[in-house]
Every structure is written in structure tokens, then in C-alpha cells.
Design goal:
Elements lengths: L1 E5 L2 E6 L8 E5 L5 H10 L6 E6 L3 H4 L4 E2 L9 E2 L2 H20 L6 E6 L1 H9 L8 E5 L8 H7 L8 E7 L13 H14 L4 E6 L7 H14 L2
Helix pairs in contact: 1-7
Length: 225
């Protein structure tokens, strides 16, 4: 593993066996790359390079537009995803792949929670990622379902993985309780566009086994032909 800093971000590269192995970019709250890589190795995942990006301004970088805080003591969302996509594609990606030393056979983007929302949003703004995995994605985000159905994808993805915990929508929070509805709606929408998509239900709530769920989503998109 090698690491470097770019701006406030810390980037960790967990290289595959082949220089041209598929590359998965994983924005995360903290650097979970090594843990997720271990799960992938233990489960026999095909060869890939995992690039974990941490130290994000989470509610800014991952949010597509402004939204009030969803909890009384929480922070608002300040819509910095467009700017962060530019930083990811114009700065982080070129530097990471320069260090790898070879262009990958394909690139994917994955994320958990708000980063899962960001992974799907990214497909509408750049053609650099041909596969996406959104685990327990924040697809409850106000206006996002409407955005998906009224805007064109920048790339027709090879495949999309969606997952959700069975208990995630069982909450009194009026936004969070819509997550199952909106995730199912996203699944149906991508199906209607003849995009190869799957939707997996997991046991538990939002905070149960995030690293294992993330590894499962990454493995699924890597295994698709």
C-alpha cells in the first residue's frame, strides 16, 4: 500500500497484482481501504486496485446540493459534489494512476451512505467511471429521485450495485424513512433504462457491517462481465 495527500484528502492505493487491473475509487469518512481489501481477498474477489479517499468534508463534498440538517444536532448539507467531482477527476485520479503506472482496464466508483449517493451522482457528471456501487446510499436525499429521472447519464454504465439494510427505513425521521422507497425506485429506473443493475437487501440497520457490505458491493461490480 502507498499513500499520499492531496489538499485535505488522504489517498491510499492498495494495488492489484496486475498494473492494468480494474480500479475502484472509494470516498469514505475514514480510511477503510485496508479493512475492505482484506474482506475482498478473503472472499476470493477478482484482481483489482482499490483507491480509498478519506478526510473529506463529508456533508459538503458528497452532497449534490444544499439540504438542511436531517437531525436536530446535525450539520446541514452544502452541495459541494460538483466541485468534488472535478477535484476527483482532474487531480486525485490522474495522480493516483500515475503512481500505479498503468491505465486500468476500467474504473468504478463505490461508496457507503452519503458516498453511495455521490457514486450514483458521479455517473451523471463524468464518463470516467463505467461501474458504480452504492451501499446503503443516501437516496432519500431530497430531489434526488427526480434528478435521476430527468437528467442524462454522462456514461452508460456496465453495471450498478445497490444495497440497503432491512431496518434502515424503520425510523421516525421523515427523510430517512423514505430510503427504501427511493432505493427501490432507483433500481426500477435503471432497469427501465436497460442498465445491468442489482439490488441486495442486507440484515440490520444502517450502521451494521458497513465494511463487509462495501466489500460485497465492490466484489459484485468487479465480477460482472
Amino acid at each position: 500500500m502507498q499513500s499520499f495527500s492531496l489538499g485535505q484528502n488522504q489517498i491510499s492505493i492498495l494495488p492489484g497484482r496486475r498494473p492494468d487491473a480494474p480500479v475502484i475509487y472509494l470516498p469514505s469518512v475514514k480510511d477503510e481501504g485496508a479493512c475492505i481489501s482484506r474482506y475482498l481477498l478473503e472472499s476470493g474477489c477478482p484482481d483489482l486496485t482499490l483507491i480509498s479517499i478519506s478526510d473529506l468534508s463529508w456533508n459538503h463534498d458528497m452532497a449534490p446540493w444544499d439540504c438542511p440538517a436531517v437531525f436536530p444536532k446535525g450539520d446541514p448539507f452544502t452541495g459541494g459534489a460538483d466541485a468534488y467531482i472535478h477535484q476527483l477527476t482532474e487531480q486525485i485520479l490522474p495522480e493516483a494512476e500515475r503512481r500505479i503506472g498503468s491505465e486500468p482496464v476500467w474504473r468504478g466508483i463505490a461508496g457507503y451512505s452519503l458516498a453511495g449517493l455521490f457514486a450514483i451522482y458521479t455517473l451523471y457528471h463524468t464518463d470516467l467511471f463505467s461501474r458504480a456501487a452504492s451501499m446503503s446510499g443516501s437516496l432519500w436525499f431530497p430531489g434526488f429521485s427526480e434528478y435521476m429521472e430527468s437528467h442524462s447519464l454522462a456514461v452508460r454504465p456496465d453495471c450498478i450495485y445497490l444495497s440497503l439494510g432491512k431496518k434502515e427505513h424503520k425510523t421516525r425521521n421523515p427523510l430517512m424513512k423514505t430510503v427504501a422507497h427511493h432505493t427501490e425506485k432507483a433500481f426500477s429506473w435503471f432497469q427501465s433504462q436497460n442498465i445491468h443493475v442489482t439490488f441486495e437487501w442486507n440484515e440490520g440497520g444502517h450502521f451494521d457491517h458497513p465494511d463487509q457490505r462495501t466489500a460485497a458491493g465492490i466484489q459484485w461490480i468487479v465480477e460482472q462481465h
